[in-house]
Design goal:
Blueprint lengths: L18 H19 L4 H8 L3 H8 L6 H11 L4 H5 L6 H11 L3 H15 L9 E5 L6 H12 L3 E3 H9 L3 H27 L3 E4 L8 H10 L1 E6 L2 H10 L12 H16 L4 E4 L5 H13 L2
């Protein structure tokens, strides 16, 4: 009588505990942040990806299908990353060495090194020095300096805010009211890409909040020689008021503290610029001379 062979029990999916739960939560967070950056509703993603909105909600909540954990375990056993397993490709010795070097860097240095490589060796490395972009908060002197520098260089002067208004057919405040923050950022990104493509040489000013949108800011950093035009909080406020704009003070006794908080929060982002130009306590002619020297040195 032949021996009875018991069926092999099914392999159980790993329980999402500890590091697994953190991994799933990270995937969900990345999906949610990517969706929000693009201003897309969950329904739109659902239709494009051919998955249910319920699944997307579970995914963003860190409750993805546990099979992704099994796949990650296989990748680890092979000494590969999950990305390598999902998108196999051949790598040269040089690529593997560079990748190993990057993987060994601490997280806080990785972004800086990656940008240096792209700036120095990217396809726009040489061209970007002919496009000068002034960034920073309103009141630092971007427009005054930008117009003057463009005149000296005999280059086009572009204000990205005006390009946004021209494309939308309405003022900036109306753009925010009509399209919301996400819609405004989409138009801003589209206008920036169009301006960069149309101007191999220019001097441009951009809104102070562009640094808060990573993908758009990266387009700017990779395609333009960027100058952070800064001033002290007191001078920022005084210059805006001198222009006749009383909005910073209207109904807001803590306007100066708000301005300082914005500057503190954005400073690490502004410091990614190629050059920092401090205009505090200076007349426009002095600041322009400093800007001219900074641009000529590159």
């Amino acid at each position: 009588m032949p021996a009875t062979v018991s069926p092999r029990p099914p392999i159980a999916a790993p329980s999402a505990t500890g590091n697994d739960a953190e991994f799933l939560a990270a995937i969900g967070r990345h999906v949610r942040e990517a969706r929000e950056r693009r201003g897309m509703a969950r329904k739109a993603i659902s239709q494009n990806a051919d998955v249910s909105e319920r699944y997307l909600a579970q995914l963003e909540a860190g409750e993805a299908n546990a099979s992704v954990l099994l796949l990650r375990n296989v990748a680890r056993a092979l000494g590969m990353t999950l990305a390598d397993l999902l998108e196999p490709r051949e790598h040269s010795v040089e690529q593997r060495l560079i990748r190993r070097f990057l993987e060994g860097l601490p997280a806080h240095r990785l972004e800086d090194v990656a940008f240096r490589l792209m700036r120095e060796f990217g396809h726009e490395a040489a061209a970007r020095h002919r496009r000068i972009a002034l960034i920073g908060l309103r009141g630092a002197g971007k427009s005054t300096l930008g117009q003057a520098l463009a005149h000296e260089l005999r280059a086009p002067f572009v204000e990205l805010d005006r390009e946004i208004e021209r494309e939308a057919g309405i003022g900036l405040s109306e753009v925010f009211l009509l399209y919301g923050q996400a819609g405004y950022r989409r138009i801003e990104r589209r206008c920036l890409e169009r301006v960069v493509a149309a101007h191999p040489e220019m001097v441009m000013t951009v809104g102070g909040g562009i640094v808060s949108e990573p993908e758009t800011y990266n387009v700017l950093l990779l395609n333009c020689f960027t100058v952070w035009v800064r001033a002290s909080p007191d001078e920022h406020m005084a210059r805006v008021l001198a222009q006749g704009d009383l909005r910073p003070m209207e109904g807001n006794a803590e306007a100066m503290e708000d301005l300082k908080r914005i500057l503190d929060a954005r400073e690490p982002l502004y410091r990614k610029a190629d050059v920092t130009l401090d205009t505090s306590g200076e007349d426009p002619a002095t600041s322009l001379a400093k800007l001219r020297r900074a641009v000529a040195a590159e």
